[in-house]
């Protein structure tokens, strides 16, 4: 029997099950089916408007969705809702709980759609987790009006179509949710299951010095089969805290990750090497260093950090930014080279890195242009230099550009655009040096932009929304 020959009751049921993925295509089949689809159009539009880009909310009236438990209960009773979510912004999970009347979920004895969702979960079964124990912890969290890690992780098993995921700010994985995430990743690699379509992942921790997000917590998400970009605020990965390392003792490889934006992070050379060793397709790396209050190390060895990036990713990185957002300690003396980057097109560094090279070679007789050769690969087309314009940073500019006219054609012929921080508060001698760079570069048709703030904004970076 042809589809158009089916009774209206059966046809309506078929149409309802095409929401949302196949609804519009089915509606274009023929006039009769289109006519049957019209009764579902308003509902389709409403669900798409409410859930396509979803974030938790609290309103003075009507339905409130403020936590993972709210979403789990909604999906249990109306499963189609989960299929509409494309961008899942779960950052504020449970933030508004204390401003609401107490909630509860059914007990195991009471049963119902929510309990059945856990009891029938293939993810809990694959993770070898007792669903009753898992549910009991979830139920207790809801009853005590606190954020539920069990609830937040279980919700991720119900979302087949999301493409962008921002996890809760309170995300703190435990043994049970680690096992569940492993099951999610394994199933996502084998079929079009939950999280299989995610291309962008973001942590939700603030940039303040009191908060941190162990880079290890991101590694399961980065191993999803279509992951392309990662934004990790306040990430933490230090040699002295092995459990913070992203992939230590893990078989996971973030094979498809192409862009990583690590903002206000505290990562040493061992931490970044561990991360890069497991991201073989990475093309863009932006790292802004920020000391965390509970970090056992307050100083930063930027030279070893850059060497680790060069060693692990020098063959494939196209864009690299290394910057200092907030440093409580000091820059550790050393010397770095970026000559090993073979494909780098966009480079952004702080002038502190150049000053390290100058200090390291001060006692030796060197070619005046050597810092330039070491720190700007011949492939670079866009260069950004970050500085507050103090601490003798005019010496760094001088070392980089003293012989720019004579070295440009042979060593920097690809260079087209330079951004240099030149704040109003900068030393006069630094400002004068900036003006000299503008003149030297213009003679070689290289455009120089003097930026009024020591910021990292200026170029387009892959993976930024």
Automatic annotation (TrEMBL):
InterPro entries: F-box_dom
Protein name (record): F-box domain protein
Limits of the F-box domain: 1-50
Top-level lineage group: Eukaryota
